[in-house]
Amino acid sequence: MEPTTLILFGATGDLAKRKIYPALYNLFADQKLPPSFSLIGLGRREHSDASFQAHVEQSLRQFSRREIRDSASLQSFLTMFRYCILDAGRKEDYAKLLQMVEEREQALRIQPNRLFYLSVGPEFFEKIAAHIQESGLGSANGWKRLVIEKPFGHDLQTARDLNRKLSQAFTEREIFRIDHYLGKPIVQKLEELHQTDPLLRELWSSRRVANVQITASETVGVEERAGYYDQAGAIRDMFQNHMLQLLMMVASHFPADLPRGDGRSKKRSVMEALRPLVKQNTGAAVIRGQYQAGEIQNTPVIGYTAEPGIDSASRNDTFVAAKLLIDDDYWRDVPFYIRTGKRMREKSTRIVVEFKDAKTKSGSRAPNLLVFEIGPDEAITLQFQSKDSSQLEAFDPIRIDAPVSPGNVPEAYENLIDDALHGDPTFFAHWDEVELSWKWVQPVLEAFEENLVPLHLYAAGTYGPAESDRLLAEDGFHWWFDIKPNQPSEQKEGEQSYAYHTNY
Ligand SMILES: NC(=O)c1ccc[n+]([C@@H]2O[C@H](COP(=O)([O-])OP(=O)(O)OC[C@H]3O[C@@H](n4cnc5c(N)ncnc54)[C@H](OP(=O)(O)O)[C@@H]3O)[C@@H](O)[C@H]2O)c1
């Protein structure tokens, strides 16, 4: 791997602390960092190099999946870190940064390969990209890349505006848009399975598949993100990016001889074939919900509009369910149901593929299922319904794939940062995918705005409003694996009060 300088905007922030430093440390421990690597952390807060390194060390001790045992190795990791005070809007700070970057490159005798990572609010994206260009930071004689966090725009127009601005400083090949769902091992496996498993390819079409269900449910509420979330809602926060990326990954046909990176054109084809919604008819395919007070794991919780920082009259969506149709030769007439919400019964991210052609003697439905558990558990199982449907859903799951040692699987950010260091865009969102996603979502945003879609309230600790069940029942289906109201549910590991936690 080529020598690299990682220039991290937002180095004092929460995401860097929880995800980026632990990911870098684990890459280092796995000997996956470039032999000559250096990181320059940026923020407005005061730090010396030593206090910044202490901050990084503390984050590793708190959040790394690997315990820190070897202090010599920890020290050699930390010595790669430097800090520079920078205010994103101050031109002169970029000149100072350029000087520091050049000094580091000269001291290490490395080429100026620079990875700019924007772990800051979206209001800074355009400004920082422009300053990188104007200051000369982006015009050295090595490669440059931009890693950018979500949100990528607030709607179709703002996303296009942002992309146009970024394109003045970086080409599409240089932009790595993080959707960390694409860094998850089971999601990455979808492409690999397709390419290596002829049986799966054979099953993957309307001939065999009755419907596909994609769920991402969280038990947390808005936590400390009220200001942002009340403007975004589930539709922008989860649906437009993560959920549609999962749809693209599950619906794409990746041929066995597909060159690495070309899967993105397959994903784009799925989005191009997605049947568009008409604003006035959105309510027939999209369910909008908001949580009321209820109970999560036997603990009472308040409703959305009573949350601190949320307008008591807010009609923001904390739950969205939708039925999508893909008008191509593979998927015509197969419904893809997607739902995502906060304060739901359990924390779970899962894709269920329900197969056709499983009639019992009595003629009742007894479908087989292929289940991709993405989080918090990770596994791929094929589930054959073993009993007659009179005895209700009794499954014999056959594990197709699961991590050998679950505690030792690289986190999404490790995979993604590793790919960005290698310049491999496979698991990053291409602009075409982002634009097509916003295009599909835009009529929904407008229909919500104009109240053309009813807002259904649901009790916290449930699976969302009853209308979400009705969406499937109209087609003769139901959501799989929902725990019945009086059935106990386990607290899963990793369940913590972090507003972004389902996202991980
Ligand atoms: N992929 C995801 O699902 C996901 C998850 C989490 C976060 N995010 C995104 O990642 C970004 C960072 O999130 P976070 O949780 O780390 O936020 P955060 O804790 O609020 O941190 C924000 C960072 O931005 C820096 N900053 C703020 N104003 C600045 C300015 N004028 N000039 C320079 N630096 C400035 C802060 O440093 P100082 O205070 O020292 O200036 C801090 O390091 C956000 O855009 C968020 O939406 C995405």
Automatic annotation (TrEMBL):
Top EC category: oxidoreductase
Catalytic site positions: 242 (proton acceptor)
Listed GO biological process terms: glucose metabolic process; pentose-phosphate shunt, oxidative branch
GO CC entries: cytosol
All residue ranges annotated as the Glucose-6-phosphate dehydrogenase NAD-binding domain in the record: 7-188
Top-level taxon in the UniProt lineage: Bacteria
Reactions performed catalytically: D-glucose 6-phosphate + NADP(+) = 6-phospho-D-glucono-1,5-lactone + NADPH + H(+)
Keyword set, alphabetical order: Carbohydrate metabolism, Glucose metabolism, NADP, Oxidoreductase
Functional pathway: Carbohydrate degradation; pentose phosphate pathway; D-ribulose 5-phosphate from D-glucose 6-phosphate (oxidative stage): step 1/3
Annotated binding of substrate, by residue: 180, 184, 218, 237, 342, 347
EC number(s) recorded for this UniProt protein: 1.1.1.49
Domain Glucose-6-phosphate dehydrogenase C-terminal: 197-480
Residues bound to NADP(+): 10-17, 44, 150
UniProt family annotation: Belongs to the glucose-6-phosphate dehydrogenase family.
Protein's job: Catalyzes the oxidation of glucose 6-phosphate to 6-phosphogluconolactone.
Protein name: Glucose-6-phosphate 1-dehydrogenase
Native species: Paenibacillus oceani
